[in-house]
UniProtKB/TrEMBL annotation:
Species annotation: Alteromonas gracilis
Signal peptide annotation: none
Superkingdom in the source lineage: Bacteria
Domain spans labelled CsbD-like: 4-56
Family note: Belongs to the UPF0337 (CsbD) family.
SUPFAM superfamilies: Hypothetical protein YjbJ
The name this protein goes by in its record: CsbD family protein
Family matches, as InterPro entries: CsbD (IPR008462), UPF0337_stress_rsp (IPR050423), YjbJ (IPR026042), YjbJ_sf (IPR036629)
Amino acid sequence: MNNDRIEGNWKEMKGKVQQKWGKLTDDDLDVIDGRREELVGKIQKEYGKSRDEAEKEVDAYFN
């Protein structure tokens, strides 16, 4: 999924993203604001994943 599509639907997707990655807070999701790179970075930090793992997880979730 391209970044524009994530950003355009972010308000609707926030709840589902928080269900998937429960360690992300509402504040985290507000900061992310639909930006893929921000989401990948937060998942990497909160879950101790490599950048590659986090990117694959995000891509798989949104595709």
